[in-house]
Amino acid sequence: MAEESPKYSSKFEESVDSVVVGENNNIYNYFYYREDVSAKPVESQETSAEQQKLPCPYRGLFHFGPNDADVFFGRDHTVDELFEATKIHNFVAVVGASGIGKSSVVLAGLVPKLIKEGNWQFTHFRPSSEPFHGLAKALVPLYTPELNATQQMGQARELANYLRNSTIPLSDVFDEIQQNRPNQRLLVIADQFEEVYTAFDKDEDRQLFLDQILDSVNNKPQVNFVVTLRIDFLNNAFAYRPFAEVLQNTHVNILPMNAEELRQVIEKPAQLHQVNLEPGLTERILESVEGKLGNLPLLEFALTELWSKQEKGYLTHKGYEEIGGVEMALANYADEEYHKLTEADQQRAEKIFIQLVNPGERIEDTRRLATRAEVGRDNWDLVTKLADSRLVVTGGSELKSVSQENPSANLEQVEREETVEIVHEALIKKWETLRVWIDNYRVFRSWQERLRASIYQWQKSEEDRGALLRGFPLNEALHKLERYRSYFSPNERAYIELSRKIDEQEEKERREKEFKLRVVGLGLVIASIYAFTAIRTANIVSKFIRLEQAGASALRQLRSGEIEALVSALRSGQELQTLVNNGLSPEKYPAGSPILALQKILGEIREQNRLDSDQERVHSVSFSPDGKFIATAGKDGTVKLWNRFGQEEVKIKDHEVGDVNSDNYSFDGVKSVAFSPDGKLIATAGDDEAVRVWDLSGKQLAQMDGHESSVKSVSFSPDGQLIASAGKDGTVIFWDLSGKEQKKIDAHSEGINTITFSPDGDKFATAGDDGLARLWDKSGEKLTEIKQGKTVFSVSFSPDGKLLATAADDKAARIWDLSGKEQNTFEDFEDFVTDVSFSPDGKHLATAADNGITRIWNLSRKEIAKLQGHRGTVLEATFSPDGEYLITSGRDGTVRLWNLFAREEEGVGLSGFSKDINTISFSPDGKYILGAGDEGIARIWDSSGKEQAQWIANPRGKVLYVAYSPDGKSVVTAGSNNIVTIWDLEGNSQATLKGHRIWVNSVSFSKDGKFIVTSGADQTARLWNPSGEELAVLSGHKAVVGVVSISPDNRHIVTTDWHGEIRLWDKSGKQLEQWQGHESKINSVDFSPDGAKLATADNNGMVRVWQLSGSKQLEFFSYQSGGINSLRFTPDGKYVATAGMDGTVKVWNFQGWQVSEYNLQAEVFGLSFSADGKNLVAGGYNGTAKLWQFLEPDNLDYLLAEGCNWLAEYLESNPEVGKTLEVCEE
Do 683 and 626 fall within a single domain? Predict the structure, then answer.
């Protein structure tokens, strides 16, 4: 029998210095963990006491370590191959599929074999989220062995920064290590090296890391690197040529085990303890695993489980069946442990596990190391419980400063941050519950990892303000924070809140500065145009200033009252129209915010009418089946019937008891109102314990008395023959239309808030104050019970009757199937969710909340609309029968009608990309659009959004820029490699332009098609003919040359760089001028259509317009929020459009006023106008692209008419408001 291995707990057995391997060897920085062998005793009573004490020789989901060499079988040939490769090459990659045993081959196979040579030292790291830090931690115990463990923690952070900044080359570190131990070779083991391809945001940072390793292995013969790499990341590795050249000849493939090797894995560890398998069991197990990739960890886990069920020295068929075999053992075990948790702990477990997975994009999902803060410090007790169950492993490999506010704190003031990770990626693949969680939160988690990268960059910059979020990234973060607050760590929440605070502060300072500059110049503009006297000019200036402020104020009103905002904007617009009706050119309007306010409000508004109920509170609202009438019910006991246009038709006031003036008066009015299916009757339920039926003239037809307390909900059956009522007494009563009671059910132990019939009438559902929603058949037998929070306010059937939606005080709305299984969750509302309803087509869900906000969602949990304006709780939200409208009622006494789709910003979505679109362009004839980006694919759409062609333009990286030839018959692409390619419209290569040494940022055709200009990271721009011949090199820039542009007459070329410098050249490549144009990186440049002006935009959001001759600055203005990625003149030259980091395209006049806006709802990287100026296209983050009809910003008359049309019904119902809008009377 083999000697018993040491016992370890399921947590990391960890030492900063080393783990002892054999007698005299250490693996530094190796966190060695394994199952506690005593934690899983043999269960069988038929096994001897001696056998029950045997340690388990199988490893479960943990990899084999150096001390497990005695139980590591089946890889002799692979270990020998790796051993020989290590003798020949200083860098060896061990490549194989996930779960094939790469780490075990290195640690339990190679390392013990090298130890026998006697002259090796070992260190180990995982790149994790900070590869430089991971490498530094591995080297510090050897680099500075004189430091104690605490000092080495701080030294690792310092060394990581030195390596990252190239202050200390990695080769120098190895020189120092070699001096400390001159007679030993060093093996650096980099486990899970694929993490290098998920840790870095920028290719340049990753390449720096790889270059340092390659330089060391090429120049330090005493240093060896062995890395383990998942095979699905091999393409990523080959994308960087220097690394690919090394990797191509120095990798060892780990192949799936054959039958004989698998037999050794199954039988030999047990035989070490004189335990055998029953006849035929090995063959049975082999059938489940042979030839099936990734099943090795499942096999090892199943054998570990099987070990505990041995009987009389045998592993049995019976035990194998009990664990569920190889395929089901892990999933069964995980489900078993999960269902042992309380309901509250199951919800916490979901939040923990989704933080332990890196969601893959076109690659498999991978596990990640999460800190205690990331999974929630309040959840750590559950993490410990999950670790005891062997579903996760905990440790403390990350370091942090004690004082997060002081990044330069004493290096000895560091503490270990506890960490947790999933025990093995097999759990991600095979546990269905976890798969569902991952898919539900995939988009959010991908975004959250990008956020963490931003936080890391901010911390690395010593918390520079410039590294905070701005523009669209900030808006997106605030939206995510609102929806998923409990999934953020305190550090992440603080970063977002600080970004918001600084952004608001900077925006306020910018507005004040800009406004002062405009006021100074405004008088000069007016006086020069009109030749007015000084006094009259001052009066007009004063009016324009007031109008500018009024337009900005209208925009701010949009979130608190949409109708009020539009009324204010119309008033400002009509006054501006009056002031400029003498023929002043629109692009010279001295006030732009009234136009912008109209354009933005009309693009976003959804509130179309408001019913003046004259009530303190409106409890209930309902559409008639034909959509022509609306019924409302309020606190004062009044029911009102309105026509669709908001005019009151009938008023019923009969639900009232007691003396209103009495001190004991507590009547809460009518609680519920419903139309009959034929629309001829109305049923009401009230606080007076009665249910009443009315015709549409207001005549009462029946009264039902049977409840012992307030009646809170009433509903007609789909056939119109029954009325169901539910009340505070917990009962449901069914009535016929004459008022006769048909059935009474004690449905809930506390009050019932909602009762509703299924569409077919065979079932009904109730929601109660006992925290339950219940589904019943029509006879009153309970079918399903759903628990949610302490109070369920609302329940609703989907139109097909297959789903239920509930809203409750747990700040969530949830969708369930009829068996009570949860299908989807809409959570992290700020307050209680008070109502929920499906749209008539079943594709959308409306939720109303205690904070006055109503939201429209699709069933994938994407928010479609956010309806704001109610002051206080929204009590009900109901779709119109056609689904086009939503009507809401609230505690503020208002009833609001929302048009959900009529004002959606016009535009055609361009689909096909899933990653960032970096560049987009119209064809010269305006019929086609070319886009490309991070996927390396070029794609052409027609103007309807239909894809016409696509091809791989850069197989190893990104496409950064595209352009059409002037005749539209070919296109040119440039990207992250150093090659520029000309293609026909079907993707056939026509010519390649080779000359740039590294990546190419932009490319442009001359308007006559005779030459091409490119710009690159090698600090040059280059001229070419279309056949690919290089004509000239434009050198002189001291930084990366970002973008170039060619003048319309083909005589001039402008180049810009990342240090803000601008240079002007003639077409032969001779430099004419140079000047410092910006203080930061210039992202875009464009010539005006007449060639007389030049516009540039930078990373700080500054636009500058220059006179071409003499480089004189004509205008400048700053973007409202965040930097600018792209800029274009409109084809008529009157305006400049900017593509921003805030997700919008903004259009500006040359006075610096923003005059219109188009919302892509994703960071915009590229934009283009059609040649006729009638269309605008933009592309950006995550493959988002949209085509709009471009409206002339000077069309004030059109905007005023649109606003008046929108408010027509409201103004008819509110004539006093209409009197202030003369423009609408016209």
Answer: yes
